[in-house]
Amino acid sequence: MSVPETVDFSDSYPVFTPDMKGTYTILVPDMLPWHFELIIHVFERRGYRIEVLKEEGRAVIDEGLKHVHNDACFPALCVIGQFLYALKSGKYDPSHTAVLITQSGGGCRASNYVSLIRKALKAEFPQVPVLSLNFAGLEKGNGVEMNAGILFRLAYAIFYGDLVMSCYNQTKPYERREGDSVRARKACMDALRTAFDGGGYRRLKRNVRFVLDTFAAVPVSEEKKIKVGIVGEIYVKYSPLGNSHLEEFLLSEGCEPVVPALMDFILYCIVNNLNDAELYGKRSAATVLFRAVYRYLLRKQRTIERITRSHGRFEPQHAFEHLRALADRVIHQGVKMGEGWLIPAEMAALAETGTENIVCAQPFGCLPNHIAGKGAMRVVKELYPSANIVPVDYDPSATRVNQENRIKLMLATAREALRRAQ
Q: Where are the extended beta strands (E) located within 29-129?
């Protein structure tokens, strides 16, 4: 049987070269709605033209299912579906468009996203390059420009994004005048972008106090609300497409969403390399670098925590070293696939600090996440008997109604507990 000449079985793919960055539009999946505004601003100042995709709905998921096996993880379907749906919309010139995906380099299917995306694009848009943003040495020669200066700015962008996210979620449910929290968020982002335009982003203490003061100026009620923590796989924990707008749903139910910091995941990835050196003797020159970066980021995180605590209006996010100590009570830090020990550590930290109601977001196809998340719930509940944890599956066949109904059952228990406590 002869093979049609139009079918290309080669492994060739278009490469994004440095001279393209001024003429190509780079599409990014909507994974980090709180942080991307600052992260993308960092790259735009380096000459990149980047656009975050906002396409949602069943059509996006179906587009992903056309090109990815349904046994692949749900985040892959969402990301690839968003890329293809956007490219088919007619808004972009495929000959001057590229797509960008972040990779952690861990032992999960996300490390294969680039090859999955390339295979999907090859069927319909073979001229579109795929870029990788990673810190694990993946996809050398076809990623975005990375150097010490950019990494330095990205770290600050993540710290500020975490702080704005936390302050907003602690303000929005209680605001007396609708829209004040959104306006405070915009004021903070405008000021932070301006800070990145110069060298002002490095004035950490001043910028942190500005964000805290801006949100503290919003008039709020003293009404007691149910706090609901969100943990789980990194994509569905943050992405509105991946978690069916979970934060917005919790706000609509009169709750305060509590979302752990993205920087905790960055520190988790770094410390896993240090743990490998201790557990398996995998020491190299990179180990010394990882240790120095870890100490630097930890010092900055402690500064933000100290300022937030002394400010008095907002609850600071969890200290990472404390998360590690809590993880040791539940699971070994050698368990690092998926989000590994970080998920039970975050559940324990939330329960310990009064956020006893927790949604554990589980995407289909992420077996490590189910083991470290759903599998660790029993131990967490033994340590914190009042913890009210519900695992919620996010996959192509799950409906938003069913997901929200599971959460509503958890909230019914939470409201009853709140009523008894008053």
A: 49-52, 97-103
Residue ranges making up the domain that contains 28: 18-145
Tokens of 268: 């988790």
Q: Give the number of other Cβ atoms within 10 Å of residue 232's Cβ.
A: 32
Q: What is the C-alpha to C-alpha distance for residues 198 and 93, in angstroms, rounded to an integer?
A: 33
Residue 366 lies in a domain: yes
Return phi, psi of residue 59, to 5°.
Answer: -60, -35
Note the pLDDT tens digit of each residue in 100-139.
988 765 666 666 778 889 889 998 999 999 988 766 555 5
Provide the pLDDT for residue 415: 92
Please check whether residue 7 lies inside any domain of the structure: no
pLDDT digits (tens, 9 = 90+) for 356-413: 999 999 887 677 777 888 888 999 999 999 999 999 999 888 889 999 999 999 999 9
Q: Answer whether 402's CB lies under 8 Å from 371's CB.
A: no
Count of structural domains, the chain: 2
How many residues are given for the chain? Answer: 422
State whether the Cα torsion 10-101-273-156 is positive or negative: positive
Residue where one domain finishes, among candidates 145, 180, 197: 145
* Secondary element (H or E) of residue 226: strand 226-232
Tell me if the pTM is above 0.90. Answer: yes
- Shortest CA distance to 98 belongs to which of 68, 139, 66? 139
Among the candidates 94, 115, 145, a domain finishes at 145
Secondary structure (3-state) at 195? helix
Q: Give the pLDDT score at 109.
A: 62
Task: Compute how many other C-beta atoms are within 10 angstroms of the C-beta atom of residue 137.
Answer: 9
